[in-house]
Amino acid sequence: MVVGRASAYLSSSAATPGELAGLRRLNPDRSIPVAFYRFAMRFLPDEWDRGSESVDDWVTVVGGLALLSPGGHDPHHPLGRGLADLQYSEARLERLLAAEGPVLRTLVIRMARFLAAKGRSVNWADAARLVLTHDASAREQLRRLIASDFYHTVTKG
After folding, report:
1. Beta carbons of 77 and 123 less than 8 angstroms apart
2. 100 beta partners
3. Which backbone phi and psi does 18 adopt, to 5 degrees?
4. Backbone angles phi, psi at 17, to 5 degrees
5. Each residue's pLDDT tens digit, 51-71
6. Which one of 21, 55, 78, 125 has the lowest number of neighbouring Cβ atoms within 10 Å?
7. Cα–chain-centroid distance for residue 87?
């Protein structure tokens, strides 16, 4: 729900070019610009800022979504399938799905740049859940789903 509303806003004329540019530059390794806080107060759930890791996770999710905007979120096109369609390498997928913490956040931003360069819309909620899910069992289930979508598409093609 958050990803859909945020994507709709970032794809609309309500998001100024300066705001969109600021959000595209988001990186959890750098200081957070005021554009993120303004965006967060409007679109993120109330508990988005509980703990420093949570803030970095949301910075990654919003930054990636902004990189893909306008129109980068397609709830009908799973992340794994989109990556397979674009011939994202298995090695990159393996690193992405095995990563945790700061490495995962870095790889998600890189993946968003890859998708944006290719002009591909995917279900960004899949990427958001990958970053925001901290329960080991739930995260593993999500990783299997992304890998399944990827390999199901690769073997069909």
Report:
1. yes
2. none
3. -65, -40
4. -55, -40
5. 656 899 999 999 999 999 998
6. 21
7. 18
pLDDT of residue 27: 83
Report if pTM > 0.70.
yes
Orientation of helix 34-43 relative to helix 17-24, angle to 10°: 100
Q: What are phi and psi of 131, to 5 degrees?
A: -80, -40
The candidate with the shortest Cα–Cα distance to 20, out of 72, 55, 82, 57, is: 72
Helical ranges in 70-133 per DSSP H: 79-85, 90-98, 101-118, 124-132
**What does each C-alpha distance from 1 to 43, 45, 102, 114 come to in angstroms?**
10, 10, 25, 24
CATH number at residue 38: 1.10.520.40
In total, how many domains does the chain have?
1
- Domain enclosing residue 66, as ranges: 2-156
Q: Look up residue 135 and give its two tokens.
A: 């329960």
Quote the tokens at residue 104: 């995962």
